[in-house]
Amino acid sequence: MANYDILGNIAIVKFPKESTKSEKLKEANKLLENKSIKTVLEKTNKVSGRLRTIKTKYLLGEKTKIAEYKENGCLFKLNVETCYFSPRLAHERLEIANMIKKTDRVLVMFAGVAPFSIVIAKTSKPNKIISIELGRECCKYAEENVIKNKVENLIQVLQGDVKRVIPKLEKQKFDFIVMARPNLKETFLEDALKVSKKKTKIIYYGFCSEDKKDKMVDELLREAEKFKRKIKITKVLEAGDIAPYEHRYRIEFVVLN
């Protein structure tokens, strides 16, 4: 059975290995019956690399890889091959946005084309949002999306590795940090703690099977202690599957010192 994601005008389909070309075209035709879908692409590899990119193959419809997508009252434009974007996190982004106060200074790490940043800006209208992303192409679309959503007075997009950008922000301390972290070995917790103060709330995303969840949480606590900081875990919630028996977890914690 085929799995697919719809990003506005584009449907990206992952077919079983045994699917024939005629079966793929039949599925693509069925998807194009939805008048909002203009293009059907086949996903030909898994999300890979630090920039979490995919490769696709054109199947049917308009020949484009530029998606125009709407969620939570926000508009996003992106190239589906060069910019990671998960429409499945739409509700997650809104939940996080609703936690933020108008007085908050917010940092979004690994921000992509700015979905978390823009949903937060439109929903909560906080004091300021710094949006850090490594990929140049993602940052190009992030800046365009910020203008498209008329939140340029609230969001500053910074291109670069968080390890290089955050030391330049150390004089700034944030009230709320979203670590929209990819599935990498490194936690990047040290970087978030550098710009945290007492009572900073951090949203961390970790990836593991259910039986390793407690170990992942314990490792975060120990890592914070290594940096002479104390954190209090307030919630651990499942925030979607990334593979069979592999989950994305949202770990919410508060910095105590």
Summarize the helices and strands and which ones pair or pack.
Layout: E1 3-7, E2 10-14, H1 21-32, E3 39-43, E4 56-61, E5 66-71, E6 74-79, H2 90-97, E7 105-109, H3 115-124, E8 128-133, H4 136-148, E9 155-159, H5 162-165, E10 174-179, H6 189-194, E11 196-208, H7 213-226, E12 231-243, E13 246-255
Parallel strand pairs: 2-3, 7-8, 7-10, 8-9, 10-11
Antiparallel strand pairs: 1-2, 3-4, 5-6, 11-13, 12-13
Helix pairs in contact: 2-3
Kindly list the characteristics that best describe this protein.
alpha/beta; GMP Synthetase, Chain A, domain 3; Rossmann fold; 7 helices; 13 strands; globular
The end-to-end span amounts to 50 Å
Number of domains: 2
Low-confidence stretches: none
**In CATH, what is the homologous superfamily of the largest domain?**
Vaccinia Virus protein VP39
Reading the helices and strands in chain order gives: EEHEEEEHEHEHEHEHEHEE
Largest pleated sheet: 7 strands, mixed
Radius of gyration: 19 Å
Describe the global form: globular
Number of strands: 13
Instruction: Give the CATH level 1 class of the largest domain.
Output: Alpha Beta
Quickly give the structural class. Answer: alpha/beta
Q: Based on the structure given, which CATH architecture of the largest domain is correct?
A: 3-Layer(aba) Sandwich
Structure description:
It is a single chain. The protein is of the alpha/beta class and 257 residues long. The protein folds into 2 domains: 3-64, 2-Layer Sandwich (GMP Synthetase, Chain A, domain 3); 86-255, Rossmann fold. Helices cover 26% and strands 35% of the residues. The protein is built from 7 helices and 13 strands. The protein has helices spanning 21-32, 90-97, 115-124, 136-148, 162-165, 189-194, 213-226, and strands spanning 3-7, 10-14, 39-43, 56-61, 66-71, 74-79, 105-109, 128-133, 155-159, 174-179, 196-208, 231-243, 246-255. The chain has a 7-stranded mixed sheet with strand order 9-8-7-10-11-13-12, with helices on both faces. Helix 4 links the parallel strand 8 and strand 9 (155-159). Helix 2 crosses helix 3. The radius of gyration is 19 Å and the shape is globular. The protein starts with a strand and ends with a strand. The model has no long low-confidence stretch (mean pLDDT 95).
